[in-house]
Design brief:
By secondary structure, the chain is mainly α. It has helices at 2-21, 23-43, 52-61, 66-96, 99-128, 137-150. Helix 2 runs antiparallel to helix 4 (66-96), helix 3 crosses helix 6 and helix 4 packs antiparallel against helix 5. The chain is globular. The mean pLDDT is 85.
């Protein structure tokens, strides 16, 4: 528990420290991360590839029914759109000189948006696919982390 708290504190403090020591890098980093995530998720949408969200779902269900497979492909596209839009919005705000708004988006808003999408999708999926068992958001994060650790091996 202490280790998790220290890691979280470091993740929260790092952007603020970078902003003081290397403001250009601090501004570019969240944009680069979001573009990288959009590209990584998008690359899994190629024909014959397994969509990223399907990988997460398979960690929970092992075998995906056809309706879940279609849903996970569409949801992967939604995440690609989210990451691309967040990167574009941050870049636009900084280019326009709206530093405070862009900083707030990069340091808080982007993560809050991801959390809202993650939890909102979970709530929607529980209703839309009520015939299937669903992991809790915490268990989903464990599945996501496991897939991401093994990705690219």
């Amino acid at each position: 528990m202490l280790r998790a708290a220290l890691v979280l504190a470091g993740l929260v403090a790092l952007p603020w420290l970078l902003r003081l020591w290397a403001p250009g890098f601090a501004r570019a980093l969240p944009i680069v991360v979001d573009v990288g995530l959009a590209a990584a998720f998008g690359s899994t949408l190629r024909a014959g590839a397994e969509p990223m969200i399907a990988r997460f779902a398979r960690a929970e269900h092992r075998l995906l029914e056809p309706d879940l497979a279609r849903y996970t492909r569409r949801l992967t596209l939604v995440w690609v759109g989210y990451f691309a839009a967040a990167a574009a919005l941050m870049a636009l705000l900084w280019r326009r000189g709206d530093d405070r708004v862009a900083d707030a988006l990069a340091l808080v808003g982007n993560y809050a948006g991801m959390a809202v999408l993650f939890v909102g999708e979970w709530a929607y999926r529980r209703r839309r696919f009520a015939q299937y068992a669903h992991a809790s958001p915490r268990q989903m994060l464990v599945h996501v982390a496991a897939v991401m650790r093994g990705w690219g091996r």
